[in-house]
Amino acid sequence: MDRDALEMRPDAAAEWPDRIYAVLKAQNITQVALVPDAGHSRLIRRCLADNEITVVTLTTEEEGIALLSGAWMGGVKGVLLMQSSGVGNCINMLSLPILHRTPMPMIVTMRGDYGEFNPAQVPMGNATQTVLEAMGTLVRRADVPGDVEACVDATIRMAFNTYRPTATLLGQRLIGAKTFGKAEGGE
Amino acid sequence: MLAPSGKLDRRAVVNALLADRGDLLVIAGLGAPAWDITAAGDCPNNLPLWGGMGGAAVMGLGLALAQPSRRVLVITGDGEALMGLGALATIATKQPPNLAIVVLDNEHYGETGGQETATKHGVDLAAIARGAGIADARTITTPDGIAPLREAIHAATAPLVAVIKIDAANLPLKLPPREGAYLAARFREAILGPAAHHQL
User: Fold this and answer.
1) Residue B3 lies inside a defined structural domain of this protein
2) Residue A67 included in any domain
3) Structural domain that includes position A29
4) Does A162 lie at the interface with B, CB-CB under 8 angstroms?
5) Which residues of B touch A69 (CB under 8 A)?
6) CATH of the domain at B77
7) B132 located within any domain
8) Is A113 on the interface with B (CB under 8 A)?
9) Residue A8 resides in a domain
10) Residue A160 domain-assigned?
11) Using a CB-CB distance cutoff of 8 angstroms, which residues of chain B are in contact with residue A31?
12) How do the pLDDT tens digits run along chain B, 200 residues long?
């Protein structure tokens, strides 16, 4: 990983973002709602370059829950990409997919999860899975590259086959913990 | 179309906007706007929301992008719109030509005891929409603005936002069905036909 970067992102050689993109294509996902995260940057670039995918950049993640509810009403399948901090913004809006029995797959890049440097990321990162599950979401985690494709595929299938919010959490260990260039355990 | 106060009556406005609506799809924000579209005539092309405050306009965006050949109208209140102001930026960025947002602005939180909203104190939702990049953002205070708005909802070539200043009285409840799964399924079937209930 790049220890000097201000945001965490996968190593350039990591190919799991491309595997997620391949799953989105195989599942006929044509609307992608997102608030950017460095961990999703490669996947976002792939989606933006795809003329069959409508990318909607949100001002806050809860818009994505409402947006994708509307897309589903119109027969379009979408996913929401966000960082774990954004999950906190979605809590009440998750009432909509529960109320309407709307598929709502989310792919969440974790912060505050494994080797976090920024103390502000820890409260929400530590609570992400708990609050998603408190709002009726089926949550699966991928912490190693080999789990990503299967987890994302299962998350999207469970959403659209069983009509509910679902989420894959992409662990910080997978993405690479940010250290601002400091050695592990340093000041 | 005027209430005794001299301001526009919300039910008369909504009735006029939904007259001869054709296959117009209507999403209503929670509370009084949902009761208003129900009073005008509950039907499968209506999706009255019971929750998700702040999400009505951007839900309309998702639908408008998914169904570019259909006209989508979101009718919501000033309190609901204020909770999701960012949606105006998100909508402006996508410029959906088939999406209209009508804000019934009574300058109060009507369902919770009539507390004043920010619009009572000068916050101008149409100006915010224009600032976001929605060029057709109008404020309507008199009946003569309603018929042109109805025309625009069916014929506009760019997204529009209309803030309609209305009387603040709470009117008799006209509740839509409460079961969200039913509301969503009938709305989807109205749009997609029986295929709505099979795997995409």
Assistant:
1) no
2) yes
3) 16-172
4) no
5) 52, 55, 59, 62
6) 3.40.50.970
7) yes
8) no
9) no
10) yes
11) 62, 65-66
12) 999 999 999 999 999 999 999 999 999 999 999 999 999 999 999 999 999 999 999 999 999 999 999 999 999 999 999 999 999 999 999 999 999 999 999 999 999 999 999 999 999 999 999 999 999 999 999 999 999 999 999 999 999 999 999 999 999 999 999 999 999 999 999 999 999 998 76
Q: What is the ipTM of this complex?
A: 0.98
Candidates A28, A67, A98; nearest CB to B61? A67
Q: A141 near A175, Cβ under 8 Å?
A: no
Q: How many domains does chain A have?
A: 1
Asked whether the beta carbons of residue A67 and residue B90 sit closer than 8 angstroms, the reply is: yes
Burial class of residue B112 in the structure, from the number of CB atoms within 10 Å of its CB (0-12 exposed, 13-18 middle, 19+ buried): exposed
**Interface touch A160/B84, C-beta < 8 Å:** no
Number of domains composing chain B: 1
Does B158 fall in a domain?
yes
Distance CA A8, CA B87 (A): 28
Q: Do A59 and B200 touch (CB under 8 A)?
A: no
- CA–CA dist A133, A167 (Å, integer): 9
A-chain residues within 8 Å CB-CB of B197? none
Q: What is the CATH number of the domain that holds A154?
A: 3.40.50.970
> What is the C-alpha to C-alpha distance for residues B10 and A116, in angstroms, rounded to an integer?
52
Domain for residue A3, yes or no? no
Cβ atoms within 10 Å, residue A56: 23
What is the rounded CA–CA span in Å between residue B103 and residue B141? 12
